[in-house]
Amino acid sequence: MMTDPHKALGHEPGFSLLTDREIRCLQLVAEGKRLEDAGNILVLSQDDVSNALASAQIKLEARNLFHAVSIAMLMGVVKHTDPFQPK
């Protein structure tokens, strides 16, 4: 039996508070993209990407960016992708 990630986190899910930009930036970081790469993909400056990630980290009450990505993945906001998995 799997644990409900919302209960495991101990509070109400905060993903509804995340903007689309924050979610897209978290997803790209989860895929291993650098800030520069994420900015190029999203047509944003590195500062815009950095600000979106910092905002998401605050909203998710994460200790660091890695923690924010982990929380977002547990909540189902960010999808795990494996580049080596055949499609």
From TrEMBL:
In its UniProt record, which GO terms are filed under biological process? regulation of DNA-templated transcription
Q: Where is the signal peptide?
A: none
Q: Which Pfam families does its entry note? A: GerE (PF00196)
Q: Which residues form the HTH luxR-type domain?
A: 11-76
GO MF annotation terms = DNA binding
What's the protein called, per UniProt?
A: Helix-turn-helix transcriptional regulator
Q: What is the lineage of its organism?
A: Bacteria, Pseudomonadati, Pseudomonadota, Alphaproteobacteria, Hyphomicrobiales
